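Hello,

I think I submitted the adenosine-5'-diphosphate job twice by accident. Can you confirm which output corresponds to this input? Input:
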Amino acid sequence: MQLLRPIIRSIRPKGPNLNSAVPQPADLIHALPDPALVVDAQGIVSLANEQAAEMLESDPVGRHLSASLRVPAVLEAMKEATAGEGGASVDYDVRVPVPRSFRAHVSCLGPGKGALIVLRDLTREQQIERMRADFVANASHELRTPLAALSGFLETIQGAAKADQKAQERFLGLMKSQAERMRRLIDDLLSLSRIEMNEHVRPSGEVDLTQVAAHVRDVLSGMARDFGCELKLDGDGPLTVAGSRDELVQVLQNLAENALKYGSSGKLVEIIVRRSGDWAEVSVRDHGPGIAEQHIPRLTERFYRVNVQDSRSRGGTGLGLAIVKHIVNRHRGRLVITSELGKGSTFTMKLPVKG
Ligand code: ADP
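Support: Only one job matched these inputs. Its output is below.
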């Protein structure tokens, strides 16, 4: 004890200035990233950070908590906590001004000392969880449909068409196309998951977009011929970006295939490569039927299709533009879609120019 005394004295703050170096409860509340409030033993708010004032749309300090947070379950938990009965977590929803979900953590600060209430916005987390569940349900449904068709054809071949070779051949052809559809879907799902996993890592290679566009034009020249459509490249000279060549080929090929699949009635699909300030832009323009305005913001959602039957009959999986969006994000770029009904659509990928 004798030895300790001088040491204790030397670390004890001296005078008011040194005292301010010790964090006060208000400092702690303001440093919290989530909305947080302290109430006294009567439920009057004594401290609140900016996030709490913003969320409750008024400064709650000096008033009873019930004046700004009208959630009976939270008020009940606060009553128990201020009475010294421990803490609780309460989930609740608000409807106005926009629907949101919260979790309130209510903790007792000690007998007669009130309670700390920390609020967490769960809206985004719940949205992601719902999207994940929807995605699994959609992917299973998309796979189950061709699988059910395959089983049906098999039963017919084993039963009604057992002795009919011509019918069997026809059914085998149909089975092949269903198996192809399943393969395309699995390829796209794997592609999407691989790209999503790497989305935060920016690709490091150097790619000439004009050369990528020329490659895609050559690869799709046969498809364009089959659709009776001209596929034209407009752009000269190298335009270099930081990127993964394979992924940028995948983007342009997806966009050009879509333009041919859905817009070949316009007889011309153009791939235009140009520089606009610090951006390298590649546009794929068709002169087909166009896309109604309300669909445009949703086109890059997984499995979103303007017309599901039409997409399926053209071998679509509904994942092409979702893959495109993730690749463009990974390249720190933007995808801009413009369209006019009866005139056609333009899909533009904008990437930062290298150097
Ligand atoms: P899909 O495999 O169905 O083609 P995508 O994700 O590539 O899936 O495209 C989503 C939907 O966007 C398509 O089903 C189609 O309805 C629409 N779409 C895409 N490109 C075009 C285009 N150039 N013209 C008209 N509609 C298009």
